[in-house]
Write a structure and sequence with these properties.
transmembrane, Aerotolerance_reg_N, 7-stranded mixed beta sheet, membrane, transmembrane helix, Double_TM_dom, 4 domains, about 25% helix, about 550 residues, alpha/beta
């Protein structure tokens, strides 16, 4: 095939050598000088009997121009590529683990049926058969070290599977991932094609120290978080306040060393152990003052303010420090020393409060305006709890301080389609929290949700990792919640390799270098023949 067929117009150049050869006449005959009548007649006959001469040279020059025109047209060799039978995509976090080894018989069966085994990672690299070999500890014996670290694991499985349907069109996909909810970040796009999901359960749990506070001169209150496949919970443990440098021991946690800082504060430093969580924070500051929160609500947000006030009071039971909660009907002064400002109004946030966000202030804002009807369900942190229905969603309004394009914003609460319900955008030492709906009907059922106090408690806790700028990693590092299999796209049973007809694909091989080489060879031969003819016609030198 030709990539640029219009370049064949260069074949019109063949008229040039043909015209030259047709007009190339032989020398006239020798006649007597006085016979001018015969000389004129002979010349007229030669003009009337034009015919091609030196036919080999003519054909060679025509072939030279023809090959040059074809080279300009971009010749290519089109070869049909046999379509693959299917693709088995395995999450990169599973390659080389014990779970991957247990799944090896099923993957070997797919390989015998013509499936290609690839990692669910950028460019979908092929996974060698030796990657499934593990030792007694569940680690690979053949390609140890090729498994990516935790920070490099894929967490946007929805988008990666969507990309696979476009890279391998018409081919059935067999996707193997863990049930960890942290690997299914982002929106859930519609997935086309034949996809079969294999979800491996998450059976691990983790316990970590979320925060610490000094409630007096002789005690510490430690907030411990525990996560498992069904939910993430917190509990408060009271321990005696140790001396500086002493070790604090709590069941389920690695040893902690109590240290005093140069600024006059205190902190607990984690002492690593072989069984400790590798993702737990190494240093947790000890809070010494009460948590202050201010709720400002306009008349149209009165129902939201009542629900928020009750939920915060219930959440304060789990706080390591007392909660000082104030509700006002007029805009509060920015001089108030508040840790949290719940701004429930359509009016924009005052500039003085917006400037305090960089100084460790957290601002909560809800959707303003009439909103848009959009029914969805909030993903509950506990699998046994009923889903929370959201009927309306709002749009970001100017002047709220919220910037959706912020580089450090991410979703804390999401609905069943992966869309943000509560987003956080860090700014300096503080943050904006944007609820994309409202707490009370007719916007949502959040006001009647039993899990709302526990969800607010997660936001009220001091989080040093968030202040460090790596917000997304800090949220996902400890989360062991599992995805509900019903949230996956319904798929048909896996088809046999012969039942799925993939569209024909072709591979193009560029032939222009060979055409240019042929042009050069023909030009060399043409020059050789032309010089030989010139030598034959030249008179011999005496």
């Amino acid at each position: 095939m030709l990539l640029t067929p219009s370049a064949l117009l260069a074949l019109l150049g063949l008229l040039v050598p043909v015209a030259i050869h047709l007009w190339n006449r032989r020398p006239g005959r020798e006649v007597a000088v006085g016979s001018l009548r015969w000389l004129t007649a002979g010349a007229n006959r030669r003009l009337r009997s034009l015919r091609p001469e030196q036919l080999p040279l003519l054909l060679l020059r025509a072939a030279l121009l023809a090959v040059l025109a074809v080279a300009l047209a971009g010749p290519a060799w089109r070869q049909a590529v046999p379509a693959g039978r299917g693709q088995a995509l395995v999450s990169a976090s599973l390659v080389g683990t014990r779970a991957f080894a247990m799944l090896q018989p099923a993957l070997d069966s797919l390989r015998r049926r013509g499936y290609a085994l690839r990692a669910l990672a950028p460019e979908f690299p092929l996974v060698p058969p030796a990657a499934g070999l593990v030792d007694s500890l569940g680690q690979r014996t053949s390609a140890r070290g090729a498994r990516p670290p935790d920070s490099a694991r894929e967490s946007f499985t929805w988008a990666r599977v969507r990309q696979a349907t476009e890279v391998f069109p018409g081919q059935p996909l067999y996707v193997v991932t863990t049930a960890a909810l942290r690997e299914f970040q982002g929106s859930h796009p519609p997935l086309a094609g034949s996809i079969t999901w294999r979800i491996l359960p998450v059976e691990t749990s983790a316990t970590w120290l979320q925060s610490a506070a000094s409630t007096g001169t002789d005690s510490l209150r430690l907030l411990l978080g525990r996560t498992r496949a069904t939910q993430t919970t917190f509990r408060v443990v009271a321990v005696a306040k140790p001396r500086p440098g002493a070790i604090v021991r709590v069941a389920g946690l690695a040893p902690l060393r109590y240290e005093e800082t140069r600024a006059g504060g205190a902190q607990l430093r984690l002492i690593p152990t072989a069984t400790g969580s590798p993702t737990a924070a190494s240093v947790v500051p000890v809070r010494t003052r009460a948590l202050r929160a201010v709720i400002y609500a306009s008349p149209s947000y009165a129902a939201d303010a009542r629900a928020l006030h009750a939920a915060l009071r219930a959440a304060s039971i789990g706080l390591p420090v007392p909660l000082v909660l104030t509700q006002v009907a007029s805009p509060p002064s920015a001089n108030d020393q508040a840790d949290w400002l719940f701004w429930l109004a359509d009016s924009p946030l005052p500039a003085a409060w917006a400037a305090s966000v960089r100084k460790e202030l957290n601002v909560w804002q809800e959707a303003s305006g009439p909103g848009i009807a959009d029914t969805a369900h909030l993903l509950s942190p506990a699998a046994a709890e009923p889903p929370v229905t959201i009927w309306r969603r709002g749009q970001a309004s100017p002047g709220t301080g919220w910037s959706p394009a912020g580089g450090n914003s991410f979703s804390l609460w999401t609905d069943g389609l992966g869309r943000a319900v509560l987003s956080r955008q860090g700014l300096g030492r503080g943050a904006y929290y944007r609820l994309h709906t409202r707490l009370s009907p007719p916007w949502s059922e959040l006001a009647d949700c039993p899990a709302l106090p526990a969800q607010l408690l997660e936001l009220l806790q001091p989080s040093p990792e968030w202040l460090g700028g790596n917000e997304l990693s800090s949220v996902l590092s400890q989360d062991q919640r599992a995805l509900d299999p019903t949230q996956l796209t319904p798929t048909r049973p896996l088809k046999s390799p012969g039942s799925a007809v993939a569209p024909a694909t072709f591979r193009l091989t560029d032939l222009r270098p060979w055409a240019v080489l042929a042009t050069g060879l023909l030009f060399a031969v043409e020059r050789l023949l032309a010089r030989r003819r010139v030598r034959q016609l030249s008179p011999a030198t005496p």
